[in-house]
Amino acid sequence: MTASIYDFSVKDIQGQTVSLADFKDQVILIVNTASECGFTPQYRELEALYQKHQTQDFVVLGFPCNQFGAQEKGDNQTISTFCQLNFGVTFPLFEKIEVNGANTAPLYVYLKHSAKGLLGSERIKWNFTKFLVNKKGLVTQRFAPTTNPMAIEAEILKLL
Question: What is stated as this protein's family in its record (predicted)?
Fold first, then answer.
């Protein structure tokens, strides 16, 4: 049984393997993202939170996903460039993944099981679902795509 997110390794947007243990002792907000979604402007708020609290051991981790309305069609380089040019994203981005179905990334199997959604569902409903992780690598809360990242700031501060 997986004990925390620190047990996972993922590939960053450049294809390099990253152990999530590299983020040990930080509060983490994990988000499945997309470049052509109505919620895409949330990149701006995610970056603002990251800039405001990164010196307090807070990080946002973005995981592009094309499973909802084919709203993330680009390759990793296209996604990275889009995020930097349009939203000034500097928080870590990772390779495009699947968050539902037979090819769900192992990290997302763990996240969904740790913090179920509405009515106990484990399925991710749409882009920009957010998982808040404490400094011990444990998921504390799940937030809907409609939740503005700035509305999560109070919960982040409690964990910092």
Answer: Belongs to the glutathione peroxidase family.
The CATH architecture assigned to 5-159 reads: 3-Layer(aba) Sandwich (3.40)
pLDDT at residue 158, rounded to an integer: 97
Averaged over 40-61, what is the pLDDT? 97
Q: From CA 160, how far away is CA 149, in angstroms rounded?
A: 16
DSSP character at residue 24: T
- Sorted by where each begins, the domain ranges of the chain are 5-159
pLDDT value at residue 80 = 93
Q: How wide is the angle at C-alpha 148 spanned by C-alphas 114 and 30, nearest 5°?
A: 35
Burial 14-46 (b: 16+ CB within 10 A, else e): eeeebebeebeebbbbbbbbbbebebbebbebb
Which positions are annotated as active-site residues?
A: 37
Location of structure tokens 């152990």: 19
